[in-house]
Amino acid sequence: MIKVVGVRFKKAGKIYYFDPSELDVKKGNFVVVETARGIEFGECVIGIKEIPETDIVAPLKSVIRVAEKEDIDKHKENKVKEKDALEICLKKIEEHRLNMKLIDVEYT
């Protein structure tokens, strides 16, 4: 058996599993984790639980830390910047008369 926590990056997004190591990660905690895309901020939606190693796709990435005030502040800042980026992208699409629809923006 291996210990994991479930982390979600978007409000209704997919849940990804991470190794909590020796950290005391609880459901509802914000966490900083290592992903294939780099370091990301997410919310722990499933607290520490043990599951069979055969249920895990290796390698299991780690929770780096429970989010600190600075991490949470930066995440809030990025959310504001996402709105600005969305407006800029929509303006550029219109300016260049691109035949496309912007679905989403993400600022990390």
Automatic annotation (TrEMBL):
Organism: Clostridium perfringens
Domain of life: Bacteria
UniProt domain PSP1 C-terminal: residue ranges: 61-108
GO cellular component: cytoplasm
Protein's name in the database: Stage 0 sporulation protein
PROSITE patterns: PSP1_C
